[in-house]
Amino acid sequence: MSPAVDVDVAVVGAGVAGLTAAHELRRAGLTVRVFEELPYVGGRMHSFRHEGYVIDEGAEQIPEQGYRATWELLARLGVTDRDVPRIGKAVGVWRAGRAHPGVAEPAALVSGAGLSPRARLDLARLLAWTAVHRTEFDSDRPERTPAGTRTVASFARRYHPDLHDYLLQPVAGCFFGWDTARSAVAPLISLMQAVGPASRWRTYHDGMDLLARRLAEHADVETGAPVHEVVDDGREVRLHGPAGTVTARAAVLAVPAPVAARLHPAAPEDEREFLTACTFTPSFKVSCLLDRPLAPASARPLYALLTPDAEDGLLSGILVDHAKHPGRAPAGKGLLTLMADPRRIPELCGADPRETAARLIRAAARYVPGLPGAVREHFVHGFTHALPEATPEALAHRPRFAARAPRRVEYAGDWLTLCPASEAAVRSGALAASRVLSRLHPSPTAAAARPAAPAPRSDRLETA
């Protein structure tokens, strides 16, 4: 490291993307410091503990397929399969007064999973079409697919209306917080292909922040350390914050695109147009700590119940956390997460949190009878920038951003591929590290002290 700077690389943001970047850079022999505004690590994969309950504030599950970079990183950190058990419960959709299990499973062609017989035929058509074009749906390059930049709603018009109303919309609305009239279908199809059936989804046994906590154990992380501006002066990068200025040979902004654009206002044009086009959807959740393990009635035990816009104007879904993993609640107790409909979040955020929570709990009693009387305590939480929204405009600007040469200021986050998934965060962190390493060279002493960084996770990752 040059004596003129404080650290080789400064990383802004201690979510999974930032911590992955720091992990890879540190393994390559560079000195790395992570700055996190919040008092904890994990970002949108943060969990907190309260009286025996483990509450996931953001991400909820991890699939056992399609997440190669994540599983490789977990193995390196010593996380075993036992630490990431299979959920083993169904995802259902509410229609005509009852829950229909089997969403996101091949058996939906037979069981229906809320789809009418005619819609099942169109689902078979959709699955056949995506199978033919499977290799063309590249999650690293979502703009290069047969679906083009069409939105979910416009793409769905070629099929029976049920496919939009009782499959694509509830999945996009609950898990992504997307408005199907605004968000592009290509990333949705790519992700659904990658993650496989819901019956094979998993969760971290001790909270969804397990990966972030493991990464942070071996990193230099400063929590409660906001950064207000990042300046590239042509020789080094300066990070300005309340505690003063930190200088670095390079920086990685592992924050949502709108935040990155604010922190780095002098970003080059080929970056700014994509940063500006990358919008995010907010999230609003109410975690209900129950005195008994209630859940929606269903022919099969449910982990999640999707409540489509066609059926509910306030909720987008209910997650049964104690069914996701028994360790999420004390023995004999229950834990439910109520997800607000994305269309109502601006209104809900402007109201009194207690009144808003009460509204969502009353609305959820339609699906979980007896819920209001079973709630012993609740927590309201959400993120202003919860999930990247893959708009056609963002897709159009992404190729130029991806083709830019490595620079002193790099970026990491799932928004780089417009894919709202922790795998995209991990891959983006590894890519940011490889781009930084293409410009910097560790000192011989530091390099000898640590193993070399691995190659990027996939040969499909874009590099300059």
Q: What does this entry look like structurally?
A:
The protein is α/β, with parallel strands linked by helices and 464 residues long. It folds into 2 domains: 148 residues, FAD/NAD(P)-binding domain (3-Layer(bba) Sandwich); 227 residues, Polyamine Oxidase, Chain A, domain 2 (Alpha-Beta Complex), CATH 3.90.660. It has 17 helices and 18 strands. Strands 1, 2, 9, 10, 11, 12 and 18 form a 7-stranded mixed β-sheet that branches. Strands 7-6-14-15-16-13-17 form a 7-stranded mixed β-sheet. Strand 11 and strand 12 form a beta hairpin. Helix 1 packs parallel to helix 8, helix 1 packs parallel to helix 16 and helix 10 packs antiparallel against helix 15. The radius of gyration is 22 Å and the shape is globular. The two termini are 24 Å apart. The C terminus is likely disordered. This is NAD(P)/FAD-dependent oxidoreductase. It is an enzyme of class 1 (oxidoreductase). Its EC number is 1.-.-.-. Keywords: Oxidoreductase.
